[in-house]
Amino acid sequence: MFTGIIEAFGKVVDLKKDQENLHISLESSLTQELKIDQSLAHNGVCLTVVNTATDQYTVTAIQETLEKSNLGSIKMGHLINLERAMMMNSRLDGHIVQGHVDQIGYCTGVDFREGSWFFDFEYDQNQNNITIEKGSICVNGVSLTVVNSGQNQFSVAIIPYTYEHTNFHQIQKGDTVNLEFDMIGKYISKLHRLHV
Predict the structure, then answer these.
(1) Which of 91, 130, 195, 196 sits between 20 and 30 A of 63, alpha carbons compared?
(2) 94 is a domain residue
(3) pLDDT averaged over every residue in the chain
């Protein structure tokens, strides 16, 4: 479990394909604190640390993860949002995030106004995911509040601190992002479909 509060960046330093798997090596300020078998969210995707070295570590993404997230399109030098699993004895500053990406979304607009950035996103409505006004959404692993919720679109407001300390400063119109919808909303949506 995660909270959606990003701790650090990971810089992609090596990508190795192994049949359908992709081994991703990253440099990060967190590397010294990581251990093999530890869960770590990468742009909101929970992956297991499989190797550590002095200044870098490696995780492995399977084909399903590559197809359902934007990790399949990462390149050398990309900055990835990182969060270690939450500790049960600390404050839950974001919202409960599982690290299981539901689908990819597409950035349809970026607008700077009144000191913050507003990002607009669209997603495939055929997967039955929903957002609600003032509800929670996880975008690339970042816990955010939904504004302007629509049938298959929503917006989020990004304050300067979040913009600078997550990879939101790299997101441009047309880019893909990983979306994890609110867990309670997913249960309600499924129950509704079963009883209609």
Answers:
(1) 130
(2) no
(3) 92
Q: What is the DSSP letter of 152?
A: S
Answer whether residue 184 is part of any domain: yes
Band (pLDDT 50/70/90 cuts) for residue 196 is low
Domain hosting residue 63, numbered range:
8-84
**Rounded CA gap, 115 and 94, in Å?**
22
pLDDT score for 92: 65
Spatial distance between the Cα atoms of 30 and 80, rounded to a whole number of angstroms? 12
**CA distance to 11, 77, 103, per residue, from 107 (Å):** 22, 21, 13
* Residue 170 reports pLDDT greater than 70: yes
Identify the residue whose tokens are 């700077």.
112
- DSSP-assigned letter for residue 147: B
Of the candidates 97, 123, 88, 101, the one whose C-alpha atom is nearest the C-alpha of residue 6 is 97
